[in-house]
């Protein structure tokens, strides 16, 4: 087992030659440390996966080493050449080519034109050479030939003249990888190359990446699909809270307790998660004043819901759930399982193909977002959930803008959240992350909704602020509001929840009480997938 901390230089890096070496890199945003790594060494000619929960700092690290973000400190070298502080074009010319989490193709341009944009050292780009037509014309003909060969390799040759904006999600991912090759890279950094891709194209992309590795290409990729990580990776590095916490083979990393804690959240204080130790959970349920399911009409009922951003590629498949007044229902699952999409479908932000959504017995499907808010849904998104230029009091008034007089409602909310009383004249943009989350939840319940949807309320918060956020959720539930809670910190989330659902690829894979799921080993399997399953199969054979 190979583990690491940011404060010690342990000898846990690969012994193979390293293509990319990153040391002592730090980057913060608004007082929150996004990246703080000791050392990461990416082995030459291998497929290395960079994994970790949301907010671990993976994409920020990519941005730093490719010149799209500036580090506060640190250095990085590629094949012995120091690239620290170099601009993105210079880093690309050194041989490091990257893709992005959201595909960045040029709409209105053909697939072939998108490929040609990535060709290196184009003579037409320089005024001093552009006048000599035969020179750049020959180069463009050669580039076109190379581009068509790469498109053929990626089964996109028949799309060469098509508008790149008309490609499917999977084809766009294929084109991004193909375009990276057009730049003649020595190393590729791929940010979630399999995100949103259907199973058939997913297998094709994985096959291409394996072939590139076999041809000698060094690849570092971010991925949340643990089955893909298991099938692709030679080496795995795990980050959490900006730090490198573990590395090794996929099986080694998947069975590292630090990795499990990073994905599920730290164990609640005072318990070792022994199934016989239920004192903390019993105390929580008593504090919440739980309404036993079945003895109260549900405030939210979701039946056989099928939903997604593209009607032809649903993300949520047949989901069914209920939330009762005063009840906290947790929705957990691996990154990309569809948790936030489920909340957005209920709120009216994502297209629903089939199924139904009822709030207090009223179907939400015919209603737009603003109409659903009037009908009893409060929704707090993960980010951009306060008006940064307004004061705390002005934010609260925005929550009651449809009320003739929101004074009483605001006073009630301030009594529920006394920490906001002394901040009433403070501009929301200057609040801490925890204070902003409290304000966002407070504003959402000003109209008195029977249902509150919370998307990752603890994301990016310090441990103390996370504890405050969960305490706020308990207080809201005590007031009688039903809460549907999506949360990456699964253990803390389940410890305050009456019931929970575990999503896997848009479907409910497990359900039960918070206590039951907190102690269910299958939850870990659903988070870390085949990486752990392979280890269990190995142990069975041994």
Could you please describe the fold and organization of this structure?
The chain has helices spanning 58-65, 88-94, 111-117, 127-130, 133-153, 169-182, 199-214, 226-232, 250-254, 257-264, 279-288, 339-347, 369-374, 392-399, 407-416, 433-444, 463-478, 490-495, 514-518, 521-541, and strands spanning 18-29, 32-43, 47-51, 73-78, 81-82, 96-98, 187-191, 218-222, 235-240, 243-248, 300-308, 316-323, 328-333, 351-359, 362-363, 377-380, 451-455, 482-486, 499-504, 507-513. The chain is of the alpha/beta class. The strands form 4 sheets. The chain has a 6-stranded mixed β-sheet with strand order 6-7-8-3-9-10, with helices on both faces. The chain has a 6-stranded mixed β-sheet with strand order 16-17-18-13-19-20, with helices on both faces. The chain has a 4-stranded antiparallel β-sheet with strand order 2-1-4-5, covered by helices on one side. Strand 9 (235-240) and strand 10 (243-248) form a beta hairpin. Helix 3 (111-117) packs parallel to helix 6 (169-182) and helix 16 (433-444) packs parallel to helix 17. It is globular and about 75 Å long. Mean pLDDT is 83; it is low at 1-12, 270-294 and 534-542.
Features:
542 residues, six-stranded mixed beta sheet, 20 helices, 20 strands
Mean pLDDT: 83
Strand order of the largest sheet: 6-7-8-3-9-10
Structural class: alpha/beta
Strand content: 15-25%
Distance from first to last alpha carbon: 18 Å
Q: List the total number of helices.
A: 20
How many strand units?
20
Gyration radius (Cα, Å) is 25 Å
What would you call the shape? globular
The main pleated sheet reads as: 6 strands, mixed
Helix content: 25-40%
* Poorly predicted spans: 1-12, 270-294, 534-542
């Amino acid at each position: 087992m190979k583990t690491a901390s940011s404060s010690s230089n342990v000898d846990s890096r690969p012994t193979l030659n390293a293509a990319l070496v990153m040391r002592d890199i730090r980057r913060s945003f608004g007082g929150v440390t996004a990246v703080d790594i000791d050392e990461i060494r990416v082995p030459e000619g291998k497929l290395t996966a960079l994994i970790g929960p949301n907010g671990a700092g993976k994409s920020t690290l990519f941005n730093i080493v490719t010149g799209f973000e500036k580090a506060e400190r640190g250095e990085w070298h590629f094949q012995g050449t120091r690239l620290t502080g170099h601009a993105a074009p210079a880093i690309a010319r050194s041989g490091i080519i990257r893709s992005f989490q959201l595909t960045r193709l040029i709409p209105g341009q053909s697939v072939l034109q998108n490929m040609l944009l990535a060709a290196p050292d184009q003579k037409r780009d320089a005024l001093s050479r552009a006048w000599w037509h035969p020179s750049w014309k020959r180069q463009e003909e050669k580039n076109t030939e190379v581009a068509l060969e790469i498109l053929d390799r990626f089964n996109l040759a028949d799309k060469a003249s098509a508008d790149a904006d008309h490609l499917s999600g999977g084809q766009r991912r294929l084109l991004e990888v193909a375009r990276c090759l057009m730049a003649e890279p020595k190393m590729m950094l791929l940010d979630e190359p399999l995100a949103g891709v259907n199973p058939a194209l997913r297998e094709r992309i994985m096959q291409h990446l394996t072939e590139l590795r076999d041809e000698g290409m060094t690849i570092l990729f971010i991925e949340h699909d643990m089955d893909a990580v298991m099938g692709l990776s030679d080496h795995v590095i795990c980050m959490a809270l900006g730090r490198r916490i573990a590395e090794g083979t996929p099986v080694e990393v998947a069975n590292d307790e630090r990795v499990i804690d990073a994905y599920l959240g730290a164990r609640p204080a005072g318990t070792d998660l022994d199934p016989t130790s239920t004192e903390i959970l019993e105390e929580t349920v008593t504090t919440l004043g739980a309404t036993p399911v079945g003895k109260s009409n549900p405030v939210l009922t979701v039946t056989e819901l099928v939903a997604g951003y593209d009607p032809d590629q649903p993300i949520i498949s047949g989901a069914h759930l209920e939330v009762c007044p005063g009840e906290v229902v947790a929705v957990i699952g691996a990154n990309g399982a569809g948790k936030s999409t489920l909340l957005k479908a209920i709120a009216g932000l994502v297209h629903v193909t089939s199924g139904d959504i009822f709030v207090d017995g009223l179907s939400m499907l015919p209603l737009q977002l603003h109409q659903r808010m009037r009908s009893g849904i409060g929704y707090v998104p993960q980010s951009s959930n306060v008006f940064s230029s307004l004061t705390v009091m002005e934010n609260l008034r925005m929550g009651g803008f449809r009320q003739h007089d929101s004074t009483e409602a605001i006073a009630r909310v301030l009594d529920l959240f006394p920490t906001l009383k002394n901040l009433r004249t403070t501009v929301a943009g200057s609040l801490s992350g925890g204070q902003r989350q409290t304000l966002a939840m407070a504003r959402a319940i000003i109209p008195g909704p029977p249902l509150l949807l919370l998307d990752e309320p603890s994301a990016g918060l310090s441990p103390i602020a996370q504890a405050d956020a969960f305490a706020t959720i308990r207080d809201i539930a005590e007031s009688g509001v039903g809460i549907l809670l999506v949360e990456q910190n699964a253990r803390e989330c389940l410890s305050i929840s009456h019931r929970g659902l575990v999503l896997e690829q848009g479907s409910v894979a497990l359900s039960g009480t918070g206590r039951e799921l907190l102690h269910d080993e299958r939850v870990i399997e659903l988070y870390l997938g085949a990486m752990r399953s392979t280890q269990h199969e190995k142990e069975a054979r041994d």
